[in-house]
Amino acid sequence: MSASATGPAPAKSAAPSPASGPNPAAPVNPRSRVLIASLIGTTIEFYDFYVYATAAVLVFPALFFPSSDPTTALLSSFAVFGAAMVARPIGAAFFGHLGDRLGRKKTLVVSLLTMGIATFLIGVLPTYGSIGWVATAFLVLMRLAQGFALGGEWSGAALVATENAPPGKRALWGTFPQLGAPLGFIIGNGLFLVIAALLPSAAGADPSQPSQAFLSWGWRIPFLFSAVMVAIGLWVRMRLVEAEVFTKTQETKQVRKLPLATVFQHHWKQLILGTFAMLATYVLFYLMTTFSLSYGRTATDAAVPGLGYSYTTFVLMLIFGVVFFAAFTLISGPLADKFGRRKTLAWITAGIFVFGLVWVPLIGLGTLGVVLWLVLGFTLMGLTFGPMGALLPEMFPTSVRYTGSGISYNVSSVLGAAVAPFIAVALWDAGDGSPWLVGVYLSAMAVLTFVALLCSKETKDVQLEAGESPA
Predict the structure, then answer these.
(1) pLDDT tens digit string along 214-244?
(2) For labeling, which of 16, 62, 70, 309 is most exposed (least CB within 10 Å)?
(3) CB hemisphere CA count around 39 (13 angstroms)
(4) Where would you find the membrane-spanning parts of this chain (predicted)?
(5) What is each CA distance from 38 to 44, 153, 222, 234, in whole angstroms?
(6) 3-state class (DSSP) for residue 57
């Protein structure tokens, strides 16, 4: 690498021997503290994010986006959901700058506080019926704050795990921040499920719709509960110390003044490849969660017919599928450590391509087919999501790792997730109630990811040392 305008090029440092341990004088994070800190933060962040995603389907179309056309109201709610994805790369750049300049620990505390405050405030917002469009504007603002915070959360948590991991186990340790996604989904939707069960609809009401009490105040509880989870997360993260690989970067004066400029000037290829390597993962996940919740609940006689399950029934089916997501996220780590990130992800991406093509035949088998569709989709999601916790950080040197991995991850969220629910609803409508076009869309995104993986280098044996990355 040539010297950049943002600072002198760092000297190459020798790769540490696998047998060498950390500096005895340096404070070391216990394994349990690293894994819990990387897990609990992303669990809270994804919980907050999915609580909105669930509310975007269940209550926000009626409370914040009133319209004579239910499809228009749903699309408006999804549009705000996607707007937060646009804020995520901005958050990645901001928190990445802090993380690469000041350290991972401080940055993770700030991102967690930002997400928690935004989520809590959504829980106390007046609705459109009370203050009109101002309520919608405040909801959009808080949603953007959520996306901004999540943009800085993931990469920091992934770095806490991978920069503290022992030799040969980086992908396994990198699955712990990834595990926060299914756990956050289960906790968030499980809480919604309990509240909906305690606030049943009146006799004769449509069982696929939330009760009046739920629409009035019950939906606020999951947002307010976020404050408790954030307090726990902050307590855990405040006890962390910086990884030795980052402190060495500080000691050797390799910290960049403008990490973002360095990334775009010298690591643009890694940015592009990392972004598209995550594309199919994001499209699959948001189709299996946000879109599927709408598709599963929509009445069969609606303008755009769905499966017609009640809210309780379909959320239970979703949670059952997400259990496989969690299990195979952990399984993917040892696979990626043994066979390599690139080879493992290439095979899984091929599976996602096939899954997109068999989507409709599976659903056509009835309830058993729908459950199989959810199980297969979430299994593939775990297998493709898990190794990303190691792959993206390994693509960048320590001095810009927070910024580089965060931007790749979050730009992919714009391309893969911000528009995925919106496009899916449009394709669902175009398919006259059949989601076959949605499956084709997923398969097309899998092709792009497969090409990115073929153009990438294997990073399994890359040393996360101070200085420039050999990747």
Answers:
(1) 878 888 998 898 888 888 888 888 877 776 7
(2) 70
(3) 16
(4) 49-67, 73-95, 107-125, 179-199, 219-236, 271-289, 309-332, 344-364, 370-395, 407-428, 434-455
(5) 11, 10, 22, 12
(6) helix
- Percent of the chain surpassing pLDDT 90: 30
Domain 31-240+250-455 belongs to what topology?
A: Growth Hormone; Chain: A; (1.20.1250)
DSSP state of 207: T
Distance CA(259)–CA(243), nearest Å, equals 19
Q: When comparing pLDDT for 419 and 281, which is higher?
A: 281
Give the single-character DSSP code of 7: B
CA distance 386 to 393: 13
Cα–Cα nearest to 248, from 97, 463, 29, 26: 26
Q: Which helix (H) or strand (E) holds 141?
A: helix 133-162
Torsion of CA 274, 340, 185, 157, to 10 degrees: -70
Which of 388, 378, 437 is closest to 412 using CA atoms?
Answer: 388
- What pLDDT does residue 452 have? 96
Shortest CA distance to 82 belongs to which of 415, 453, 468, 452?
415
Q: What is the pLDDT of residues 182-208, one digit of tens each?
A: 999 889 888 888 887 787 654 444 445
Q: Are 78 and 257 in contact (CB under 8 A)?
A: no
Rounded to an integer, what distance in angstroms lies between the CA atom of residue 245 and that of residue 466? 6
Hey, what are 27's tokens?
């404070």
d(CA 166, CA 419): 38
Rounded distance, CA 325 to CA 319, Å?
Answer: 10
Residue 390 near residue 256, CB atoms below 8 Å: no
Amino acid at the residue 461: D
Question: What secondary structure does DSSP assign to 167-197, as a single string?
Answer: TT-HHHHHHHHHHHHHHHHHHHHHHHHHHHH
pTM score above 0.70: yes
pLDDT for the residue 357: 93
3-state helix, strand, coil in the chain (%, to 5): 75, 0, 25
Burial of 249 (0-12, 13-18, 19+ CB in 10 A): buried
Q: How far apart are CA 111 and CA 104, in angstroms?
A: 11
- Concatenated DSSP letters for 364-381? TT-HHHHHHHHHHHHHHH
Residue matched to tokens 């795990």: 161
Q: Which residue has the tokens 């946000």?
A: 290
Specify the range with the lowest mean pLDDT, choosing from 22-36, 57-71, 250-264: 22-36
Place of tokens 């999951």: 222
H helix runs in 218-366, sequence order = 220-237, 244-251, 259-266, 268-277, 279-286, 292-297, 311-339, 341-363
